[in-house]
Write a structure and sequence with these properties.
Strand order of the largest sheet: 1-2
Number of domains: 1
Number of helices: 15
Radius of gyration: 19 Å
Number of strands: 2
Length: 296
C-alpha cells in the first residue's frame, strides 16, 4: 500500500545529501526555501495556526483530498518520484554514512558514468515536462496547459516549487552542460527524432503521461514546453549571474572534487539526490494544506 500524504511528509529527511545540495542554492533564491518536514509542523508553518482542533481539521481535509484520485495529487507524486528514480544508479544507502563528512568525489568515479550531452539535455527537458504536467494535475487543469504553467512560474512560484526549478537549471543545466546549456538543449530537441526519444529510459517511464497522441506529438509538446520556459531560465541565469563554476563552488562545501570534473559532479548529484521527489512532496503538502484551509 502506498504511503499517505502525512507519512510522506513525516518521512522527509531533515539532513542528507539532497538537503545539502538544495541549501547550497540559497544564493540563487535567497530565503525562498526552507526544508519543512513533519505533516503537523508543515500545517503550522504554512497556516500560522496554533489551535489543535483546527490543525486536525486541516490535516484531515488535506488527507481526504490527497486520497481522492480524481484530484491528481497522487499522479503528480508518481511523476516526481519516477523522473527522479529514472536517473538513479547508486542507492542513497551507499552514501548514508557519508552525511556530515566532506565526500571525496574521487572515490566514486569508478562507479559513475557521466551522461552524454544528448541524454543530459533530454533528462532536463523531461524533468521540465514533469513539472508542467504535475502542476496541471495538482491544479485540476488540462495537462497541456503550458500557458497557465508559465504564468504561474513567473508570478506565483515560491518555496519548494521555485527551488525545484532553480535546481533544474543549476544541477541539470549549468553543471553538466555549461552556461550555454539553453542553446544546447534547443539544438538537441530541434534535431531529435521520435525514435531517439523512444530510446531514452526516462521517456520510456513517463511517456504515457506526456500530452500527445504519438511519439511525434509528444516530442512536439516537449519542444513547446522548453521554448515556453527558455526565457525564464535565461533570465534566472543572467539576473543571478550564474555559472557552472559558481554553483560548483557552493557544492564544494560538502563534496570534494577537482576542477574539470563537472560532468562527474553532475552524475554524482543525479544518483545521490532526489530533489524532484523531495521538493515535490513539499509542493503537494503546501497545495493540499492551502486548499484544505480554504475549504473549511
Amino acid at each position: 500500500m502506498s504511503k499517505t500524504i502525512y507519512e510522506l511528509v513525516d518521512d522527509l529527511p531533515e539532513r542528507n545529501l539532497t538537503i545539502f545540495a538544495l541549501n547550497s542554492l540559497d544564493f540563487v533564491i535567497p530565503g525562498q526555501w526552507q526544508n519543512l518536514t513533519g505533516f503537523e509542523n508543515t500545517i503550522r508553518e504554512i497556516t500560522g495556526e496554533t489551535d489543535e482542533a483546527i490543525i486536525q481539521q486541516i490535516g484531515d481535509r488535506a488527507v481526504w483530498l490527497y486520497n481522492d484520485k480524481s484530484q491528481g495529487y497522487q499522479q503528480a507524486l508518481w511523476l516526481y518520484q519516477t523522473i527522479d528514480r529514472a536517473g538513479s544508479a547508486l542507492g542513497s544507502a551507499a552514501l548514508a554514512n557519508k552525511v556530515g563528512e566532506k565526500i571525496p568525489l574521487l572515490g566514486f568515479l569508478n562507479r559513475l558514468t557521466p551522461k552524454a550531452d544528448r541524454a543530459q539535455t533530454l533528462d532536463l527537458s523531461l524533468k521540465l515536462v514533469v513539472e508542467i504536467v504535475a502542476y496541471c494535475r495538482i491544479n485540476g487543469i488540462p495537462g497541456d496547459s503550458i500557458g497557465d504553467f508559465v504564468a504561474a512560474l513567473v508570478d506565483n512560484y515560491t518555496g519548494p516549487s521555485l527551488m525545484r526549478m532553480s535546481a533544474l537549471v543549476c544541477f541539470d543545466g549549468l553543471i553538466p552542460l555549461g552556461t550555454n546549456f539553453l542553446s544546447q538543449v534547443e539544438t538537441t530537441l530541434n534535431n531529435l527524432s521520435p525514435k531517439a526519444l523512444e530510446d531514452n529510459e526516462s521517456y520510456q517511464r513517463i511517456h504515457d503521461s506526456i500530452p500527445g497522441n504519438s511519439t511525434t506529438g509528444k516530442l512536439e509538446f516537449i519542444n513547446r514546453s522548453f521554448e515556453s520556459v527558455q526565457g525564464w531560465m535565461g533570465d534566472l541565469v543572467r539576473d543571478r549571474d550564474l555559472t557552472a563554476e559558481k554553483v560548483a563552488d557552493r557544492l564544494s562545501s560538502f563534496i570534494d572534487f577537482s576542477e574539470g570534473k563537472l560532468d562527474y559532479l553532475a552524475a554524482f548529484l543525479d544518483v545521490s539526490t532526489n530533489y524532484y521527489e523531495h521538493t515535490g512532496i513539499q509542493t503537494l503538502a503546501r497545495s493540499l494544506i492551502e486548499r484544505a484551509v480554504a475549504e473549511i
